[in-house]
Amino acid sequence: MAALAKRGAGNVHHMNSGFPGAQSAARLVAVFKLLARHHVRGLSIRELSALCGLDRSTARRHLMVLVSTGLAAKDAASGRYGLGVEAMLCGLQTLARPPVFEACRPVMLNVTRRTQDTVFLVIRNGDFAHCLHVQIGASALPAHSLMTGQMRLLGQGTASLALAATLRDRELEQIHQRRRLDYESAGISRERLREMVAHTRRQGHSESLNLLTSGAIGVGLPIALEPGHVAALSVAGHHSRMDGAHKTAALRILREEIGMAGLQVHGLR
């Protein structure tokens, strides 16, 4: 699992595994991964060809294989391609045992043991942050805190804010525009989201007070996975014990455990 953070991006011409006949399969995988990264907006065949470094006929041939298997689909309105139903079903199957959880589980256990605080593991799911696991600390947070399996808006919650800070400003604007009513009902205006993200980037980590749970303070860091994909870990505790010294120690311990697990902290934009 340590390899999650160490794989280079590269284009399809650098994805040959070295096995005879593997280049075509590697190209197909590369096309699929590009569709995954650009799923929300979708890709035209011309854009896909440019991104993967293949001529249009080759890119289209690989794309049609994915469409025929349900792993890719064409949007009728825009004519652009994204992931298909079969890709969604495959992704849902991994939630029963998420690979990122297996990689981060030792980190969560050790951070909780060393800090006595609660640790959250969150990944991006479209416009939302999906909580994969909560490692309960010695002093459990209130029941209305984020729980395993729940989703929150990107930027709503400490780990979710760490994820949001890794995105480009334009993408954040588009997400807020799509979910404007949801953000406003959560008390997060476009200006407030910008301010929280800017503050997170300046600090190099996320920090929140009462952002999801009343009386709770948390600090969080994004973790680099595959190129273009990020998870986040946060450490949260009651404000009565999360003073400045404790926050500093929790953040240091989180960084240490991430490094010892062979993972890497994702740089903030």
SSE topology sketch:
Blueprint: H1 22-37, H2 45-52, H3 56-68, E1 72-74, E2 81-83, H4 85-94, H5 99-115, E3 118-125, E4 128-135, E5 151-153, H6 158-164, H7 169-178, H8 180-185, H9 190-203, E6 206-209, E7 216-224, E8 230-238, H10 244-260, E9 264-265
Antiparallel strand pairs: 1-2, 3-4, 3-8, 4-5, 6-7, 7-8, 7-9
Helix pairs in contact: 1-3, 2-3, 5-10
Structure description:
This protein is α+β, with helices and mostly antiparallel strands and 269 residues long. It is built from ten helices and nine strands. The protein has helices spanning 22-37, 45-52, 56-68, 85-94, 99-115, 158-164, 169-178, 180-185, 190-203, 244-260, and strands spanning 72-74, 81-83, 118-125, 128-135, 151-153, 206-209, 216-224, 230-238, 264-265. Strands 3, 4, 5, 6, 7, 8 and 9 form a seven-stranded antiparallel sheet that branches. The longest helix is centred in the middle third of the chain and has 17 residues, at 99-115. The protein is globular. The two termini are 25 Å apart.
